[in-house]
Amino acid sequence: MVDVEDELELVHLLRAVTVELDLLAAEFAGANDLHPTDLRALIALLDAHRAGETATPGKLGEQLGLNSAAVTALVDRLEQRGHVRREKDPADRRRVRLVVAEQAVKLGWSFFGPLIDRAVGRMRGYRASDRDAIRRFLRDMNGLVAEQRQAQRD
What we know:
Blueprint lengths: L3 H28 L4 H15 L6 H8 L3 H13 L3 E6 L2 E9 L1 H22 L4 H26 L1
Antiparallel strand pairs: 1-2
Helix pairs in contact: 3-4
C-alpha cells in the first residue's frame, strides 16, 4: 500500500532544503555584490570545471536560459569583479572559454566550505546503501525538475 503522506513529506522536505539553500545563496550574493544570476553562473562554471568540460558563453546561456546579450553582460560583470576570465580555447582558437578565477573559488569556499564540510561529515553517518538511495532520489528529482522546466519552455 502506498503511503501518500509519507511521499508528500519527502517532497516537502526537499522543498524546504531548496528554500534554505536559496536563502543562503541569496545572503552570499548580497554580501558579495553579486546578482543571483551571477552566483548561478559561477556555480555552473565550477560544475563544468569539476566535470572536465569546457565552459563557453553559449553553454552558460543554455544552462541559465539567457540570450547572448544577457550572457555577455553577465560575463562582463563577473570579469570586472575578477571572478571569471575569458580565454581563447586552445582546442579551437575561434572559441572563447570561461574560467573561474581562483579568488572566486576561495571566496565561495570561505562561505560555503563549512556547510560542505558539515554535510560530508553528516553523510558519513549513512550506510553506503543509504547514500546510494539518496543519490538515486536526488538525481531523479533533479531530472524531474529539469523536465518540467523544459516542458514549460516548449
